[in-house]
Structure formats: structure tokens, C-alpha cells
Amino acid sequence: MRLTSFLVLLLLPTSAALAEDKPGRHTHDGFYLRGQLGLGYLHSKATDVDLVVKGGAGSLNLELGYAVLNNFILYGKLFGASASNPDIRVGDTTHEGDPDDDVSVIYAAMGVGAAYYIMPANVYFSGAVVANQLSASHEGTLEGESEAGVGLHLGVGKEWWVSGNWGIGVGAEVALGRIRTGDRSRDNWDVTHFALVFSATYN
């Protein structure tokens, strides 16, 4: 019995060391998947008329890619932010959002980006170039949408490992959108979105 206990105690440190040295453990390499949920603020300003749409917004971000080098990742991105019953300012008059309005403004984007992790702190910086669009709905029915424009998304965050390949964390992201139709009979828009995010990453 004492011999068995001695062998168990002897082997435990070795097993732990092998687990720590397992290839890919706590390393940003290979396949990459990240999902983010965020709470923030959406501000959309028409450039040809004095019109601003703004309000609190929830967001969802999905990224899929591959680490071409350790800690350096290229990815594709899908993003959406929705402001429910936003405030609408026309000239000097502001209509404050009301739950009875049942109006939503959605900022959607898709594009490509890159992320870099500073290790072993597991702090990341990311940036993406996207095609983006604004749309508005009333009572769940699409009422209108803009042309597609070009945008830039920048992010920073910190993650903690919860398994060999999964990490969870918090961060912040800012999205800047520029929508130009080339037709002054339609609204052109400048869009700003900021969010604090919770992330889950597999890498």
C-alpha cells in the first residue's frame, strides 16, 4: 500500500508536466473561432440632412479564421448591432425613443481582419475592414436600408484560459462606418458604434 502511494505521488508531477507541455495548449495557433456579445452605443448621422439616430445597442460578433503565425490570426468577420427605439433628432427637435414605437435600427457588417495576442498576458489587439449597411424596421418589418459602405472595426481585450484551447474574456470594440450613395437624393451616413464585450475564443 505504501509502495502504491509512493508511485502515485511520484507520477503526479510528471503527468502535470506532460499536460502543460502538450502541443497547442494555451497557444494561439491553428483554427480560430471567436464569439462576442456586447452592450454599447450606436450613433448614426446623415451627412446631407440634419438627422441623427442614436441610442443604446446590443451587438453580436462572430470571427472565423486561422493563425498563420503563432499569436497572429487572420479571420473573416460577421457583425451586427441593434438599437431598439432610438432617439431621433431632426434639426433642433428630438424625439426620444419609446417602447411603444417598436422601432429598431440595425448596423450590420462583414469583412476580413487580423488579431495579435501578446503572450503570456493573453491580451489581444484586432482590426478589420468591412462592408457595412444601416437598416430600420418597425414592428419587425423592414422599412428601409442604406446602400453598402466601408467601415473599420478596432478592438482590444484580455482573455483567461479555461481549458487547453478555450479562453473567455472581456474587451472593447469601436466600429466606424462610412456610407456614401453618390446620389444626393438619398441620405449618406456616418456611423459610430462602441461596445464593451464578453468573448469566448477557441484557438
Structure described in brief:
By secondary structure, this protein is mainly beta. Helices cover 9% and strands 66% of the residues.
Question: What does this entry look like structurally?
Answer:
It is a single chain. With 203 residues, the chain is mostly beta strands. It is built from 1 helix and 11 strands, in the order αβββββββββββ. It has one helix spanning 2-20; strands at residues 30-46, 51-69, 72-84, 87-90, 93-95, 103-118, 123-138, 141-145, 149-161, 166-179, 189-202. The protein has an 8-stranded antiparallel beta barrel with strand order 1-2-3-6-7-9-10-11. The longest helix has 19 residues, at 2-20. The radius of gyration is 23 Å and the shape is elongated. The chain starts with a helix and ends with a strand.
Question: Which class of secondary structure composition applies to the elements?
Answer: mainly beta
Order of helices and strands: HEEEEEEEEEEE
- Mean pLDDT, to the nearest integer, reads 87
Give the number of helices: 1
Count of β-strands: 11
Main sheet specs:
8 strands, antiparallel, barrel
Strand order of the largest sheet: 1-2-3-6-7-9-10-11
Give structural attributes.
203 residues, 11 strands, mainly beta, 8-stranded antiparallel beta barrel
Topology:
Blueprint: H1 2-20, E1 30-46, E2 51-69, E3 72-84, E4 87-90, E5 93-95, E6 103-118, E7 123-138, E8 141-145, E9 149-161, E10 166-179, E11 189-202
Antiparallel strand pairs: 1-2, 1-11, 2-3, 2-4, 3-6, 4-5, 6-7, 7-8, 7-9, 9-10, 10-11
